[in-house]
Amino acid sequence: MKMDIVKAVAVVAAAAVVTSAAYAANVTVKGSDTMVILGQKWAEVYMQKNGGTTVQVTGGGSGTGIAALLNGSTDICDASRPMKASEIADFVKKNKVRPHEYKMCLDALSVYVNKENPIEKLSFPQLEAIFTGKVTNWKEVGGPDAPISLYGRENSSGTYEFFKEHVLNKKDFAAATKTMPGTAAVIQGVAKDANGIGYGGIAYGEGVKALKISKTNDGEAIEPIETNVLSGKYPITRYLFNYVSPMVDSGAVADYITWCLSDEGQAVVKDVGYFPLPKNLR
Amino acid sequence: MNDTIQIPARSVGAASSDATAVLGAPPPRTTPKPFSTSLARRHPRRLESLVEKLIFLISLSAILLIFLIFAFVGRESLPVIFGRTDNTRARKPIAVADISHTPRAELALYLGLSETEFATYDVATVQTLVELKAQELAQNSNPDSRMNTTSWRMMFQPYHWFGYNKPEFIWQPVSEVPKYNIVPLIIGSLKATLVALLVSVPFGVGAAIYVSQLANPRWREWIKPAIELLSGIPSVVLGFFALIVMASILQGAFGYASRLNALVAGLALGLAVIPVVFTISEDALSSVPQSYLQAALALGASRQQAAWQVVLPAALPGVFAACVLGFGRAIGETMIVLMASGNATIVSASIFDSCRTLTATIAAELAEVVFGGDHYRILFLLGTLLFAVTFVSNLIGDVVVHRLKTRLEGKG
Amino acid sequence: MTLRRKTLDWSGLAFTAGTGAATFMILLMLAIILGNIIWNGAAQMSLRFIFGGTSEGMFDPQRAGIFPMIFGTAALVFLMTIGVVPVGVATAIYLNEYARKQSTLTRVIRAAINNLAGVPSIVFGLFGLGFFVQFVGGGIDRLLFNGHLHYAKPALVWAAATMAALTLPVMIVATEEALRAVPHGLREASLALGATKLETVFKVVLPQALPGILTGAILAIGRGAGEVAPIMFTGVAYYLAHLPKGVTDQFMHLGYHVFVLSTQSPDIERTKPILFGTVLVLLVLTFLLNLSAVLVRARLRAGRVAG
Questions:
Q1: Is the residue at C285 inside a domain?
Q2: Chain B closest CA to A124's CA: distance in Å?
Q3: Contact C26 B278 (CB under 8 A)
Q4: Is the pTM of this model over 0.95?
Q5: pLDDT tens digit sequence for C12-24
């Protein structure tokens, strides 16, 4: 009886090793947590239509995806920020060619405060002062006399990078920013903290208030809604990217990206809460 | 007198054949079945000694693992430890048009490549790399880019960075000028661990005293497994509980500003550490020889006096070891602090402020790093630091328990 | 200290009350945690939840299923057991049957086991990444696959290997306890009948110690099913379209799903039922394992006392 068990285990182990060496049409997608829900929905709908290909989606942050692209452990990298020059240089050093960049859809970053906060709008200079820690009390920007409680993302997040580059003018976030592992955690933090302020993708804003943003102190404050994003008036908009290594950009991978950029794929974008790419950019 | 006893040979033979007739044929000789029929029949000892050697080699696996962990985690952080990393970023950019005028060695250094690597690239690739490098340098207008921020001095001493108001300890690895000061992380770990110990030691040791000395022995039978049940709860569940349930309740009770802070994380950590402290203290208290207790009671002490003044001091080394091991467990815990501490890298004495620990930093940031880069190496350095701290605290705990055992066995 | 019994021993009572209160509070916290989770998670329990997949919607309480996470956890634990049981049992056999008790090597091995038990779980994660994924996986790729990426990435096999390293001390300690509990007389009788030492170990001692070894395996599995930090970089994934088909696939995991839902779900209030449901399933799993280990151990002890 012992020999039978040993034989059975050996067969199972051998089968496992053998099956692991055989690969079906498999597309791996890794990267941005902002895009992971979109990526997952795309994968679900695509796989229902094309049974032959399997799509795997993992999160971890834009930085994770780019690192995986460099290490070769993913086919497609989801990124909520463009690749940095040093990252592209690392890719070129390894592969002798630049990675292919695809703009997939539009996203807007909202600034969220607690529902009880009376503030309705803030400007870029005010946001910079708040998030770098220069302004520490709500009364300095027209709110109640209370300390400002900052919520932000981990530094592996493209959302973090984008906000830092475009709103903070590349300055560092205040050290007192509570770094949360996901936008939903940021939202949850702000929802439960009367003095909280945070930022995140526009799709997430349940239970908090999204502020109107103006580029200058006396400019017009724009509301983060779809028409303003598509027309370009809302100042904190960004593209969401897919990066692919030219060596794998063919066959199943290329088909998948083409489908995501098609009308069907862009309809899924709307369902998840982002904004489809204007036709001329696809 | 020739009274020699004549034993007729025939009768001896007859006796033995009689014995056979009486007792029946002797049972067939059964040797235990050899381990393996063919090899064992020829070389019974060789196969066995082979198997025994194999067992011996496998048993060295524990030592091998400790060594491997130390080697592989430490190996990645060696360049930083020895000060061989340098991330100064201020150089004059070389224009694409100047490529043909620049000597190869200088170009290779400029691009961060070795000469052999550089030789493998064709002209178009080199052009692309130079373009990208020019882009990278143009984005860097910060005067601090001239410094090597991965040096030991930068990791431990405050510095007045460009754009800040005063010298501060800053951990900000993703930035124009990466800042790798680990003092906020060490303070964060110590704060959360301190709160955890402040919670777990009184409760754990108190419960151990109660269960081993004062309670009804029948209760001991199920209180002990119940508290050990607490150790069966995965740490991610404790972190989730702290994040979703405890944080709001505590904020309502104390009224502080940050919902997630060192207090919440420390309390949850304390819950995780209590079983460790309890089990080891209870073992230590129960191993004190009965003669101590009986002598005290015979002299007229009450159970409480005996417990407090006789048994506890005798078991003190074991209780101390329990605390040391609890410390090691608390400082190494990851999921609870990742979810419940707020993860703000600030240097602050207040437990009502968010903090970030060494473990949470590794867990949160390892996913993004490029393998082999400075950030990656410094995260492995944090891992080596954690490993060293828990190694030392385990060693202390083991030595103390060992000495306690020999002392009690010697005297008792 | 006098023999006055007429007045109450206030300080003694206070001491008992204090330590008793400490015990009570610990048990109370345990009850609160368990009660809260059961209360909030029971509503989510249904066959669809436990056996459904994630294809219908991972964040919709009405349609979410956690079967891939259960399967992934089970696969991880199965592979881990294959790794940890032989190594743990062999080490315990050596330490208990063959090693000289006071030799330096024995002390070093025991010190190594104790230290292994204290290493933080995230350091195991770093070790798994640096050693298993990059060194061993990279080596396999270079030798067998000509450098193509098959093994040098996060995979089920590396996560299982990392967890096996993590739970090794538990297995060794439990097996040693079981081996020690086997009466010496049995060994001596076997040797007296002419068996060799190895035969004695494998045919007499081990079968007697089997319940204890089983306890050790169950405890290791309980620990392995709950830890999240070591698998975060060695193989677990946020969302996979299908169950892992081979050992080089990534997998989903109950504990990691709890982490993901707590911190990254799109609408924390809406996905709370799924979160509590997943936590409940994870807790039930680990508790069943721990309970069975305790029961096996208790039966073993009772059997020994009686016979």
A1: yes
A2: 17
A3: yes
A4: no
A5: 888 889 999 999 9
Residue whose token pair is 């055992």: B405
Domains parsed from chain A with CATH numbers: 25-106+239-281 (3.40.190.10), 107-231 (3.40.190.10)
Contacts of B297 (CB under 8 A, 6+ apart): B303, B306
Q: Which of B395, B384, B393 is nearest to B182 (CA)?
A: B384
Q: For residues A179 and A155, is the Cβ–Cβ distance under 8 A?
A: yes
Closest to B248 (Cβ–Cβ): which among A85, A87, A192? A192
Considering only CB atoms, A90 lies closest to which of B122, B184, B370, namely B370
Please tell me the distance from the alpha carbon of residue C250 to that of residue C244, in angstroms, as a whole number.
6
> Domain with C164 in it: what CATH number?
1.10.3720.10
C283: Cα separation from own chain's centroid: 13
Which residue of chain B is at minimal alpha-carbon distance from A148? B257
Contacts with C47 (C-beta within 8 Å, 6 or more apart), sequence order? none
* Lowest mean pLDDT across B144-153, B177-186, C131-140, C257-266: B144-153
The DSSP symbol for A278 reads P
Whether residue C26 lies inside any domain: the answer is no
User: May I ask the CATH architecture of the domain B183-411?
Assistant: Orthogonal Bundle (1.10)
Number of Cβ pairs closer than 8 Å across B and C? Answer: 265
A residues 3..32 contacting C (CB < 8 A): 9, 13, 16-17, 19-22
Which residue, A72, A74, A33, is CA-closest to A56?
A74
Residue C6 lies in a domain: no
A192 touching B (Cβ < 8 Å): yes
Answer yes or no: are the C-beta atoms of A244 and A257 closer than 8 Å: yes
Confidence class for position B13, pLDDT limits 50, 70, 90: very low
C222, pLDDT greater than 70: yes
Dmax (CA) of chain B = 136
Q: Let me know if residue C19 belongs to a domain.
A: no
Is the CB of A95 inside 8 Å of chain C's CB atoms?
Answer: no
Tell which residue, B258, B248, B243, B244, has the closest CA to residue B351.
B258
* Integer CA distances (angstroms), B147 to B178, B265, C135, C239, in order: 10, 36, 33, 41
Q: How many residues does chain B have?
A: 412
ipTM: 0.86
Query: What is the Cα–Cα distance from B71 to A252, expressed in whole angstroms?
Result: 41
Whether A44 and C55 lie within 8 Å, measured CB to CB: yes
* Domain limits, chain B: 50-84, 91-139, 183-411
What range does the domain containing C209 cover?
Answer: 45-306
Q: What would the pLDDT profile of B300-320 be if each residue is shown by its tens digit?
A: 988 888 888 999 988 888 898
